[in-house]
Amino acid sequence: MEVCPYIEETFKILGRSWNGLILHYLSKCPENRAHFSDIKRDLKPITNRALSLKLAELADAQFLVKEIISENPPSVCYYLTEKGATLAHALEPLEDWAHHYMELPDHS
């Protein structure tokens, strides 16, 4: 029996550091969008450089779009495409499973 090549390609994206968490994070934001600074603040301990690279990678793969908002000063917002939103939606059963079966490390 072979591994499904579509699943294999999907896990190549999700298996890279931060990609799955960024998609999940944006899916929980209002309108599936967030500013760079919000993503950086909430996805500790990712560095600015790593976050920039990951967001560019996900944009190149058409999972999200980078939007530059002309304000003073300008800001950058990212939002999920339909492709990214449907993948994030497909991860919801995994989130349910994790709540049921996974234990979080005790950081006290």
What report would you give on this structure?
The protein is an alpha+beta fold. Helices cover 55% and strands 14% of the residues. The chain contains 6 helices and 3 strands; from the N terminus they run H-H-E-H-H-E-E-H-H. Strands 1-3-2 form a 3-stranded antiparallel sheet. A hairpin with a 5-residue loop joins strand 2 (64-69) and strand 3. It is globular. The model has no long low-confidence stretch (mean pLDDT 94).
Q: Strand-and-helix sequence, N→C?
A: HHEHHEEHH
Helix fraction, binned, reads 40-55%
**Strand count, sense and closure of the main sheet?**
3 strands, antiparallel
Rg, Å, rounded: 15 Å
Approximately how much beta-strand content do the residues carry?
5-15%
Structural class: alpha+beta
Shape: globular
Count every beta strand, where a strand is a DSSP E run of 2 or more residues: 3
Number of helices: 6
Separation of the first and last Cα atoms: 45 Å
Give the rounded overall mean pLDDT: 94
Residue stretches low in confidence (pLDDT < 50, at least 5 long) are: none
Largest beta sheet: strand ordering? 1-3-2
